[in-house]
Fold:
Amino acid sequence: MLDMRMISQYLPDFFEALFETLKVAALSGVFALIIGTVVGIISTMKSKLAIIPVGIYTGFIRSTPLLVQLYFVHYGLPITGIMLTSFQSAIIAFSLNSGAYISEIVRGGLTSMDKGQSEASRALGLSWFQTMRLIILPQVFKKILPPLISQFSYLIKDTSLAAVLVIPELTYTARKIAARTYMPFESFGIPMLMYFGIYLILALLSHLIGGKKEPARSARRWFGFGKVV
Amino acid sequence: MQDISLIQQVYRLGIAFLSNLAFLPFVLAIGIVLGIVIAFVRFHRIPVLSQVLAVLVEIVRGSPFLIIVYAIYFALPYVGIELGAFQTGIVVLSITATAYLSEVFRSGLVAMDKGQFEAAEALGMSYFQKVTLIILPQIIKTTMPSIVGQIVMTIKDTSIVSLVGMVEIVRTSRQIMQLTLNPFIAFSIVSAFFILVCYPLIIVSKKLEGGNNR
Structure:
């Protein structure tokens, strides 16, 4: 049923699109990590002045669809005089979205840290900033690496919405090739396998880093991620 | 540029939001029933069927929602099935909800104490009694936070069905935007509707999670 000639003809296009998807995801991922770390640290502070804006930000991101957030950035920001290309809009929307989820992961990591760690480093005369950078954050990141990898896996899936802004990533390319060749099974099957491959690699990675025993056996069991709402 | 008053915008978007919410009962019913069935098939490791379902579930969980929407929307006519936008939405949302919920229920099953099964068996219950009277009520209770989380995800995902022609809140907001040329107001109202429904659910999910841990 599958047309091998069509597949070999368009495979380079699909790989190019896969590269674009990974580019969008990697760029957004870096910004999201920065946003998430800063917001996550702020959210552990006691002052109401810090907690309320953070609560509004994460609450908004978590309760509205990413598509609406993308439209907000792409169609809303130009009204305020900020002109953005589709690519920039996508990166901003994905970074803000993923950043909110990462901030909750970072927050969870920070609150699970032993108080003695920061007290000891303060007693050694380290400033708050040094304590964070040298003592707390390295330990937190080591602990939260598995959920961060899961979050990156969600981010890669979310980048498919960039297709709405005509960015030539995997989902957009699949649609374009489906419309051109009238072969929906091949056109959507190959990108889905690509997404699936990335998902499996990241799942395996998250699992191995999580220090689970008998990785081979669990790999056979088709492990899943902890789900983030 | 055409003037639509704020109240008119809220009214039109509110009506449109009802079509988003109309997906929920169908999708939840299908997702929970099929999810439970798949979870039991995989839990009992029924040969062949279990492996096939595992691969299908992982493919759905590993693929972006949008590409599943496109794939179903463009591929179904090729196998002779013509669906409207709403039916396509139900099919696609149910597929993803089933995949995620089956994994939720399966983890609930795996986490359950083996003694529960053995005790029910010892009491002479049939398999059907065991499942419906002993196992399911407990699993539904322990997985409630994830079920509520899945409801939130489904509500948010309904917005994506607008991309294959479903007239719902996001599509309506874009139409309004093209009339008023003011995207901020239209999208703010849309966000407000989603927050109104989803935010309380997220809080409930968190509360339930806290309750279960204690």
Remarks:
- Chain A has nine helices and no strands.
